[in-house]
Amino acid sequence: ICSPLPHPDSIATLEKLRRCEPLSMRGMPPIVWDKAQDIYIFDKYGNKWLDWSSGVLVTNAGHAAPEICKAMIDQIQSGLIHNYVFPSEERAEAAEIIASVSPEGLKKVFLLSSGSEATECAIKLSRAHGIKVGGRSKIGIIGFTRGYHGRTLASQQAGGMAGLKAWIVNEDPAIMNAPFPDGYWTEDTSFDTFLKAIEDKGFTGDNIAGVIMESYQGVGPEFAPVEYIEKLRAWCDKYNVVLTFDEVQAGFGRTGKFWAFEHYGVTPDLICCGKGISSGMPLSAVIGREAIMDQFPPGSMTSTHTGNPVCCAAAVANIKKLLDEDLTGNAARLGPILLERCKAIQKRHPDVVGHVSSAGLVAGLQITLPGKKEPNHDLAHRIIEICYQRGLLLFAPVGAWGQTVKICPPLTVTEEALIEACDVLDGAVDDAVAGK
Ligand code: PMP
Fold this sequence. Notes:
Blueprint: H1 8-20, E1 35-37, E2 40-42, E3 48-51, H2 54-57, H3 66-77, H4 89-100, E4 108-112, H5 115-134, E5 140-144, H6 153-158, H7 162-165, E6 175-178, H8 191-200, E7 208-214, H9 226-239, E8 242-246, E9 270-273, E10 284-288, H10 290-293, H11 309-324, H12 327-348, E11 353-359, E12 362-367, H13 377-389, E13 392-393, E14 404-407, H14 415-433
Parallel strand pairs: 3-13, 5-6, 5-7, 7-8, 8-9
Antiparallel strand pairs: 1-2, 2-3, 4-10, 9-10, 11-12, 12-14
This protein binds 4'-deoxy-4'-aminopyridoxal-5'-phosphate.
GO molecular function: identical protein binding; pyridoxal phosphate binding; transaminase activity
Organism: Prosthecobacter vanneervenii
Keywords: Aminotransferase, Pyridoxal phosphate, Transferase
């Protein structure tokens, strides 16, 4: 499918980036994107890839969906591209449609620009609430091991990836991690372990302000057991702790439910979302209960580009498309096919595919050292490299140790295209394991 890779001109672009913006680079396949359309990515040299990254779980409604592009172009042509915090119809419509897809009781929305900004905001709101109900010492924040919430100061620390921890520059002793009870990397899934992790840090419910958790953990997707989440909800209620589900990558239909926390049957106090909210424009939101959201005066959560009218127009068109075409339903329908194909790979290679999990149209293969429960970044990387040489584009290996082959096509993918891509993955794993 692909002409000789990487193309020499792509190398020149990559070199330019390496010289000028090296910190943005990570071990991605050396493709310089030129165009994207629905489930395909193109470069300038005649290469085409089936996209199994969704631009890191962003383009749920497909790349460059015509109705979303039209909404943005119309907005640009209207002459209103930026209005700071002055009211605009687009901003009101975006807030309204986001509130309309949110659960009962969570109807207040802050529009922001990135997922990190949303989780940072949720942490700030949780602390303000904690201080209000419990005094100055109720500021503890609990995140989970191997979690990811962004790269601002507090969000980075609430995340639990080893790589992120290495870059903490201003450690806050009141932000801590409990083990994420995924059942594979952390076998112990009992809620007592959560309580013990806090006690070990010298905290109790009385001085914890908030818990922030990815609804499914990106390393997988891994869900916590339902009983664990029920106990967590009850514990938060007992101690007046704000529970935030981070839906930045899990939301907007990805898992076969509109919000991934619906799989638990438990509602949080705050939802952080971004990525799939607008299929590519920089917009994010915190959605929450009135009593928590209304603690700060109007304007105190705003920055220059939050609620930008072009981003808002994109979000409205995007959410309408997700709903009108029932793309959540498509994820739920195709999810079992994807899981079955991944399980078949694991059955052929149980030595190195330690664990497989999926929810709707997100799946992950945990690649291990042969016969051991230890991460195998090199093999994960090789599988992805072969896929890209054969026209299937996956994100660089993710997960706490770069050991996860993560699959996340746009939710507009057809059954036929999904099966075609699964065939490529099959061959790539076989060949990588054979040392090719
Ligand atoms: N939370 C989760 C679960 C994420 O996956 C991400 C981004 N990968 C973020 C927060 C941060 O979002 P952003 O990169 O837009 O700041």
